[in-house]
Design a protein that fits this description.
It is built from 7 helices and 20 strands. Strand 15 and strand 16 form a beta hairpin. It is 22% helix and 28% strand. By secondary structure, it is an alpha+beta fold. The protein folds into 3 domains: 68 residues, Uridine Diphospho-n-acetylenolpyruvylglucosamine Reductase, domain 2, CATH 3.30.43; 126 residues, Uridine Diphospho-n-acetylenolpyruvylglucosamine Reductase, domain 3 (2-Layer Sandwich); 104 residues, UDP-N-acetylenolpyruvoylglucosamine reductase, C-terminal domain (Uridine Diphospho-n-acetylenolpyruvylglucosamine Reductase, domain 1, Alpha-Beta Complex). The strands form 6 sheets. It has a 5-stranded antiparallel beta sheet with strand order 6-7-12-10-11, with no helix packed on it. Strands 1-2-5-3 form a 4-stranded mixed beta sheet. Bound molecules: uridine-diphosphate-2(N-acetylglucosaminyl) butyric acid. Uridine-diphosphate-2(N-acetylglucosaminyl) butyric acid binds next to strand 13 and helix 6. The site of uridine-diphosphate-2(N-acetylglucosaminyl) butyric acid has 19 residues, from strand 13 and helix 6. Its EC number is 1.3.1.98. This is UDP-N-acetylenolpyruvoylglucosamine reductase. It is an enzyme of class 1 (oxidoreductase). Belongs to the MurB family.
Length: 336
């Protein structure tokens, strides 16, 4: 039976550490728990909020909702021709999974080390870092389809992954509750060292294995991203904006140090951190909320503040960037 609470404090369930409450919250440790919670008469008619690690949400106030705290465990390895299939429960810690696979001799997730949050949340924004996106290691996932109340398996194509995007942020928003994810890790593992900073971190190691790459990623992330256990944050707060080659070239002419990355379709991704940094926001504090001093893309909460204050700061940043560069930057986390 799902373990149900009324007026449940969510401060420890969102990495910004905003102090809000849920009208009801249920710990979901199995698919049976999930069905039981959804059928519980106490929460009938209330909106539903699904929380994994709470590392990609901004909670702006108490939630008059049923909050599902996804804690389904599980780890299973199967083999197929040329690859291992690793299935993990939605509630498993993502970084824990990365480390466990590497320790068990199943490389492939090392570039995605230390990303906060759970396995079940990883496909929602198609987590990506240091040259690898989840979709490149994704096989399928299992989810409850709330329209039919049946469990379904969704494959790579059905999940509609894009940069920090998927079916679950678009047409499938509020429709699916992910309970397990299966990753495909090819046996002929190849290191991905395309990201300049990662390659530099590994200089001197001619043939780094997965554990060495994981450790390098951990070192880089620890240097520039705040640990949510110490400073409230949700990683990158803005997505890197995509612009046309024309717009990028015009900006480059007036800002020769502009940081941009060519995309396969000819467009360019701009480093939002660079844009925000150039507007002078890096390290700025506005009472309890602010911009991290080592990476302008990360907004922080020092305690005692609200999601609303954080969003006001984010709006000011986006407006300033737009006025100065003519580019609109969009928030990454889900606002509730
Ligand atoms: N930059 C600045 N000032 C800053 C921050 C960045 O000038 O304050 C410049 C840097 O000099 C660098 C460039 O911007 O040349 C890119 O910075 P970085 O390598 O830190 O990567 P990012 O584009 O800011 C993205 C992801 C991160 C991911 C890293 C590494 C997004 C929104 N963010 O950040 O993801 O870890 O690349 O792959 O795509 C996250 O999503 O929460 C996240 C941390």
């Amino acid at each position: 039976m799902a373990d149900f609470h009324e007026f449940y404090p969510l401060r420890r369930h969102n990495t910004f550490g905003f102090d809000v409450r849920a009208r009801y919250a249920a710990h979901i440790r199995s698919e049976a728990d999930l069905l039981a919670a959804l059928n519980d008469p106490r929460a009938a008619g209330l909106p539903l909020v699904v929380l994994g690690g709470g590392s990609n949400v901004v909670l702006t106030g108490d939630l008059d909702a049923l909050v599902l705290l996804m804690e389904i465990p599980g780890f299973r390895v199967e083999t197929e021709a040329g690859a291992w299939l690793v299935t993990a429960g939605a509630g498993e810690n993502w970084h824990g999974l990365v480390c466990r696979t590497i320790e068990e001799g199943l490389p492939g997730l090392e570039n995605l080390a230390l990303i906060p949050g759970t396995v079940g949340a990883a496909p929602i924004q198609n987590i990506g870092a240091y040259g690898v996106e989840l979709r490149e290691r994704f096989a399928s996932l299992r989810a409850l389809d709330r329209q039919t109340m049946r469990f379904v398996d969704l494959d790579l194509e059905q999940c509609g992954f894009g940069y920090r995007d998927s079916l679950f942020k678009q047409a499938g928003r509020d429709r699916y509750i992910i309970t397990a994810v299966t990753l495909r890790l090819p046996r002929d593992w190849q290191p991905v060292l395309a990201y300049g900073e990662l390659a530099r971190e590994l200089e001197g190691n001619a043939a780094p294995d997965a554990a060495a790459i994981r450790d390098a990623v951990i070192a880089i992330r620890s240097r520039k991203l705040p640990d949510p256990a110490q400073i409230g944050n949700a990683g990158s707060f803005f997505k890197n904006p995509l612009v046309s080659a024309e717009q990028r070239n015009a900006l480059l002419a007036s800002h020769p140090d502009l940081v941009s990355y060519a995309q396969p379709d000819g467009s360019f991704k701009l480093a939002a951190g660079w844009l925000i940094d150039r507007c002078g926001f890096k390290g700025l504090n506005d009472g309890p909320v602010g911009v991290y001093g080592k990476q302008a893309l990360v907004l922080v909460h020092h305690g005692g503040g609200t999601g609303t204050a954080l969003l006001a700061l984010a709006g000011r940043i986006a407006d300033t960037v737009q006025a100065r560069f003519g580019v609109r930057i969009e928030p990454e986390p889900v606002v509730l």
